[in-house]
Amino acid sequence: MGNDMGKKILVTGASSGIGRSLAKLLAENGDSVVLVARNSEELEKTRGMMKNPDRHICISADITDTSCYAGLFDRAVSDGKKLGGLVHSAGISKVTPLRGMSPDKISEIFNINFNAFLILVSYYAKNKYSDGGSIVGISSANAHYPQKCMSVYAASKAALEAAVRTMAIELNDKHIRINAVIPGAVNTEMTSVIDKDALDAIYAKQLLGCGEPIQIAKVIRFLLGDDSSFITGRALYADGGLLGQ
């Protein structure tokens, strides 16, 4: 990516899926990565897959616990180098039919997919943690092409996109860009729990078939880098050509 290499990027959900692929890609491009997830063992596994593993920091944290944020960000910059990017890749997707709807189930999905994103952004924007840079949130094609019994998940991702558009105005004063990526169905641990026939039906709607985490990671890397310096407040589709139902 040329002259924008060598940034420090904080990535949530770095223990699997898109987050893990992104961490490996960033390391290959010369960035240092702050890997964040709850599972410390899987985080260390990710770091072991990365180029120059000693350059990267693993922080085991539950980002639904708001009391962890100050310590998390303090540790992320404890070497004296501020953050140059943030990616919220952590998330959950749960089938939630109306008959089983409850405040707790709604909160569980929103806390990780949306609420955590807002708090992460608010901390990243503090001068002690960053001097600008780029933020990327992960949305979902589900917010645009709805599926049965996925109303809460779709709403949490639609809320993220709305927040990105609004926060871009405020963050511009701090020289921070913020965007979202809208993946289609991708071959990750999250999709592995879906019934195979149902998953095949979803993939069949995508012109380019099943997506892989590295394909989404490359789009995120573009939004983090200087090549996307004229893009903010937007949501970029990476859905394999999911053009209709």
Describe this protein's structure.
By secondary structure, the protein is an alpha/beta fold. The chain has one domain (2-238): Rossmann fold, CATH 3.40.50.720. It is 39% helix and 17% strand. It is built from 7 helices and 7 strands; from the N terminus they run βαβαβαβαβαβααβ. A 7-stranded parallel β-sheet has the order 3-2-1-4-5-6-7, sandwiched between helices. Strand 5 (130-138), helix 5 and strand 6 form a beta-alpha-beta unit. Helix 1 (17-28) crosses helix 7 (213-224) and helix 4 packs parallel to helix 5. The N and C termini lie far apart (36 Å). The relative contact order is 0.15. The model has no long low-confidence stretch (mean pLDDT 93).
Q: What's the helical proportion of residues?
A: 25-40%
CATH architecture field: 3-Layer(aba) Sandwich
> Major β-sheet, in short?
7 strands, parallel
What distance separates the N and C termini? 36 Å
In CATH terms, the superfamily is NAD(P)-binding Rossmann-like Domain
Strand order of the largest sheet: 3-2-1-4-5-6-7
Could you give a short description of this structure?
With 245 residues, the chain is of the alpha/beta class. Helices cover 39% and strands 17% of the residues.
